[in-house]
TrEMBL record, chain A:
<dbReference type="Pfam" id="PF00528">
    <property type="entry name" value="BPD_transp_1"/>
</dbReference>
<dbReference type="InterPro" id="IPR000515">
    <property type="entry name" value="MetI-like"/>
</dbReference>
<dbReference type="GO" id="GO:0055085">
    <property type="term" value="P:transmembrane transport"/>
</dbReference>
<keyword id="KW-0813">Transport</keyword>
<feature type="domain" description="ABC transmembrane type-1">
    <location>
        <begin position="99"/>
        <end position="307"/>
    </location>
</feature>
<keyword id="KW-0812">Transmembrane</keyword>
<dbReference type="InterPro" id="IPR035906">
    <property type="entry name" value="MetI-like_sf"/>
</dbReference>
<feature type="transmembrane region" description="Helical">
    <location>
        <begin position="107"/>
        <end position="125"/>
    </location>
</feature>
<keyword id="KW-1133">Transmembrane helix</keyword>
UniProtKB/TrEMBL annotation, chain B:
<keyword id="KW-0813">Transport</keyword>
<dbReference type="Pfam" id="PF00005">
    <property type="entry name" value="ABC_tran"/>
</dbReference>
<dbReference type="GO" id="GO:0140359">
    <property type="term" value="F:ABC-type transporter activity"/>
</dbReference>
<dbReference type="GO" id="GO:0016887">
    <property type="term" value="F:ATP hydrolysis activity"/>
</dbReference>
<keyword id="KW-0067">ATP-binding</keyword>
<dbReference type="InterPro" id="IPR017871">
    <property type="entry name" value="ABC_transporter-like_CS"/>
</dbReference>
<dbReference type="InterPro" id="IPR008995">
    <property type="entry name" value="Mo/tungstate-bd_C_term_dom"/>
</dbReference>
<dbReference type="GO" id="GO:0043190">
    <property type="term" value="C:ATP-binding cassette (ABC) transporter complex"/>
</dbReference>
<comment type="similarity">
    <text>Belongs to the ABC transporter superfamily.</text>
</comment>
Length: 317, 329
C-alpha cells in the first residue's frame, strides 16, 4: 500500500516545501485547524458507532465465559476454540469448512453480480440515450429495495418450491417429468438470492464509473478500428476498474457477513460464518461470538487487501 | 486521396445542420472548414469521418463512396478536439492502440508507435500517462495516434483551440510541416480565420449549413464572394452603395484629400494605435450596410502621423475604385 502512495504525484506538498513567510505559515496553520473542525462531526460519528463497538468486540473476544456469565478476565481460549482441531491436519476443521463454504458463495455471488451488474450498467450508461430514461431505469433497479430483504427472499419460495411456479411450468410444458429438487434450499437458491439482493451494489458504482468515461474515447477507439468488443475490453473495462472494485468490496463484505440469506434460502441446512456467530449470540456466548467476529473481520480485510492490490483504488479515484 | 462531398445533408429532426453541400478536395491538399459555431463545419467533418450518419447525399473518398462504411474502413483518421487520449494507457500504448486493434504483433506495433512518436518529437515521454503531459504534448500524442495506421486523410476537429496563443502558432507550423512531409490530405475544422489563412490550400467558409465560398486563401481574402465572407474573414468593410454592395479592404481605405470620387463624410468614433498601423473606426451613415457597424480604415503609422485625427473629427472617406469588390449577396 505504501508503494501506492509513493506513486501518486504529490504536488500540494511540493508547493508547501517552499520557504513560507511567517504570515503565510500562520494562515496555513489556521486552514489546517479549520479542516480538522470540518472533519470532526463525521469523525465523532465514526468514533461512536464504528471504533468504540469494534474496540469493545475486540476486548470481549478475550474474556472468559461459562453457561451463565461473562467474566472480564484475559484468555485466548475463545480463539483456541475457533480454530479447534484445525492444526491436526487430518480433516478440515469446522471453522475452515464453514469459511470455505462462505468463500464459495462469495465467489459465486461476486461473479454473478459482477456479470449482471456490469451488463445492466453498460446498457443504461451507453445504450440509453436520454437522461430521463436513464433515471427511470435506474429507479426500476432500486425497486427490490422497496420491501425488506426477508420478504424478498420469502417471495422466491412459491416460485422455486417443489410445487412452485417454475416446477409446475416445466412439468406442464413436459420439459421435466418429476419436480426438480435443487431449486429451493440449495446452493443455487442461495446464490440466486444474493444476486437479487446485491446486484444493485454492483450496478451503482460501475454505472458511476461509466458515466465518467468521456464519450469521445469510444469514438476514438472506433476511429482506430476497434470493434465494439475490443472497445469494451480495451477501453471501457479498464476505465471501470474503480467502480468494479468498489462494487466488489460491497458485495464481498455483504456476502461474507451474511447469515439471513444463507439461513432462509438454504433451509437452515447450509453453514456460514455469519450464521455461526448468530447462533453463538443466541446462546449468549458473547466472547466466543466476538472472537469469531474478529476472525471474520480479519478474513474480510485480507480479501479486500488482495482486491486493492489488484486495482490501485487510491490512484484510480 | 481526393474527397468529394455530393449534396451532403444532415438533418436532426426538423433542423438542418448541413444543407446539401458539394465540395471537392484535391488529394494532398490542406483544407480548412471555416465558420462560426453552429455553421455545420464539425458535423461535416464527422460525416466524412463516419462518426455521424449521413441523412442524404454521399461522401466519396478516392474511388469509392463511403457513406455507409465504418470509420476504420474509410482510410481516414480523426484527431479529436479534446484529444480523446485513453487515460489508462501510456503515450506508447495510446499510439499503438490502432495497430493492436488490427492485430499487429506486439514488437512491431511498439516499434511503429515509437517511430511515430519520434516524428512528433514525443519519443522521450513515451512511457508517460496522458495526465502527466501538457496540452501541447497531449496534442502531439493524439496526432501520432491518428497517423500511426497510415491514413490517406487526416481529419482534425479544432485541433488548436485548446492551446495557448504562443503554442497555437507553433503547432500550426508543425501541422503544415507534417502535412507537407506525409503528403496526405488534411481536413481541418476551425473558427479562426487566421488559422485557416495560414494553413490551407483550400478555405471553405461555411454559414448556416451551407458553403459561402470555397477557394484558396488569397482568393477568399481578395475577392470574398458574399458579405458574410467579407465580414467573417475580417479586414474588410462591407459598404452599401445605392445600386450595389461592395467590399473594400480596410487597409485600402483612403481618408482626407486622397479620398477619391465616391467619398462620403464620416465621423471618427475610435482610434486604436497598433504599432506599425493605426486602426480608425468611422461612422458613415451613407455607406453603412448595417446600422451601427462602423467602417474601419487601417492607416500606416506614417500616413497617420501626417494627418492625425481626434475623436469626433469629421473626415472624407473613400477608396480607389479598383479596390472596390462587388459582392454577390
Amino acid at each position: 500500500m505504501s508503494t501506492a502512495t509513493a506513486r501518486v504525484p504529490s504536488l500540494p506538498e511540493a508547493a508547501q516545501a517552499a520557504p513560507a513567510l511567517p504570515g503565510l505559515a500562520a494562515e496555513t496553520r489556521r486552514q489546517r485547524r479549520l479542516a480538522y473542525w470540518q472533519a470532526m462531526p463525521l469523525g465523532l460519528v465514526f468514533l461512536a458507532f464504528f471504533l468504540v463497538p469494534l474496540a469493545l468486540t475486540l476486548i470481549v473476544s478475550f474474556w472468559e465465559y461459562n453457561e451463565y456469565e461473562i467474566i472480564p478476565a484475559f484468555t485466548l481460549q475463545n480463539y483456541a476454540d475457533v480454530f479447534e482441531g484445525c492444526l491436526s491436519g487430518a480433516d478440515l476443521c469446522t471453522t475452515f469448512r464453514t469459511y470455505l463454504s462462505t468463500l464459495k458463495f462469495c465467489l459465486l455471488g461476486w461473479a454473478a453480480t459482477l456479470t449482471v451488474g456490469f451488463t445492466v450498467a453498460y446498457f443504461v450508461a451507453f445504450h440509453v440515450r436520454s437522461t430521463a430514461m436513464q433515471t427511470v431505469l435506474f429507479l426500476i433497479c432500486t425497486i427490490p429495495f422497496w420491501t425488506s430483504n426477508v420478504i424478498r427472499m420469502i417471495a422466491w419460495i412459491p416460485l422455486l418450491g417443489r410445487n412452485g411456479l417454475v416446477n409446475d411450468t416445466l412439468m406442464g410444458l413436459g420439459v421435466t417429468k418429476a419436480p426438480i429438487e435443487g431449486l429451493l434450499y440449495s446452493d443455487f437458491s442461495v446464490v440466486l438470492a444474493f444476486i437479487h439482493l446485491d446486484t444493485v451494489f454492483m450496478i451503482v458504482p460501475i454505472f458511476n464509473s461509466m458515466m465518467r468515461i468521456d464519450r469521445s474515447l469510444i469514438e476514438a477507439a472506433t476511429d482506430a478500428g476497434a470493434t465494439p468488443w475490443q472497445t469494451l475490453w480495451n477501453v471501457i473495462v479498464p476505465l471501470c476498474k474503480p467502480g468494479i472494485a468498489i462494487g466488489s468490496i460491497f458485495v464481498l463484505t455483504l456476502i461474507m457477513g451474511d447469515f439471513v440469506t444463507v439461513g432462509v434460502m438454504g433451509g437452515q441446512q447450509i453453514a456460514s460464518v455469519g450464521k455461526v456467530i448468530q447462533v453463538q449470540m443466541s446462546y449468549l456466548q458473547f466472547p466466543a461470538a466476538a472472537a469469531n467476529a474478529v476472525v471474520l473481520l480479519g478474513a474480510v480485510m485480507v480479501l479486500i487487501g488482495a482486491l486493492t492490490r489488484l486495482i490501485d483504488l487510491r490512484r484510480e479515484l | 486521396m481526393d474527397i468529394e462531398l455530393v449534396s451532403l445533408t444532415k438533418r436532426y429532426g426538423d433542423t438542418v445542420a448541413v444543407d446539401g453541400i458539394n465540395l471537392k478536395i484535391r488529394s494532398g491538399s490542406y483544407c480548412c472548414l471555416l465558420g462560426p459555431s453552429g455553421c455545420g463545419k464539425t458535423t461535416t467533418l464527422r460525416m466524412i469521418a463516419g462518426h455521424e450518419t449521413v441523412s442524404s447525399g454521399d461522401v466519396v473518398i478516392g474511388p469509392k463512396a463511403v457513406g455507409d462504411l465504418p470509420p476504420s474502413e474509410r482510410g481516414t483518421a480523426m484527431m479529436f478536439q479534446s484529444y480523446a487520449l485513453f487515460p489508462h494507457l501510456t503515450c506508447r500504448d495510446n499510439v499503438a492502440f490502432g495497430l493492436k486493434m488490427r492485430g499487429v504483433p506486439k514488437a512491431e506495433r511498439i516499434k511503429r508507435a515509437e517511430a511515430m512518436l519520434a516524428l512528433v518529437q514525443m519519443d522521450k515521454l513515451a512511457g508517460r500517462l496522458p495526465a502527466q503531459l501538457s496540452g501541447g504534448q497531449q496534442q502531439r500524442v493524439a496526432l501520432a495516434r491518428a497517423l500511426v495506421t497510415g491514413p490517406k486523410v487526416l481529419l482534425l476537429d479544432e485541433p488548436l483551440s485548446a492551446l495557448d496563443p504562443f503554442l497555437r502558432v507553433r503547432m500550426r507550423t508543425e501541422l503544415k510541416r507534417l502535412q507537407g512531409e506525409l503528403g496526405i490530405t488534411f481536413v481541418h475544422v476551425t473558427h479562426s480565420q487566421e488559422e485557416a489563412m495560414a494553413l490551407s490550400d483550400l478555405v471553405v467558409v461555411m454559414n448556416g449549413g451551407r458553403i459561402e465560398q470555397a477557394a484558396d486563401p488569397r482568393t477568399v481574402f481578395e475577392r470574398p464572394a458574399t458579405a458574410f465572407v467579407a465580414r467573417f474573414i475580417g479586414g474588410h468593410n462591407v459598404i452599401a452603395l445605392p445600386d450595389r454592395r461592395i467590399a473594400v479592404r480596410a487597409d485600402r481605405m483612403r481618408l482626407g484629400p486622397e479620398a477619391g470620387p465616391e467619398a462620403a463624410s464620416a465621423r471618427v468614433v475610435a482610434v486604436e494605435y497598433q504599432g506599425s498601423t493605426v486602426h480608425v473606426s468611422l461612422e458613415a451613415p451613407e455607406l453603412s450596410a448595417e446600422a451601427g457597424a462602423p467602417l474601419t480604415a487601417i492607416l500606416s503609422d506614417h500616413a497617420y502621423a501626417d494627418h492625425p485625427l481626434a475623436l469626433g473629427d469629421t473626415v472624407r472617406v473613400g477608396w480607389p475604385s479598383a479596390e472596390a469588390h462587388r459582392l454577390d449577396a
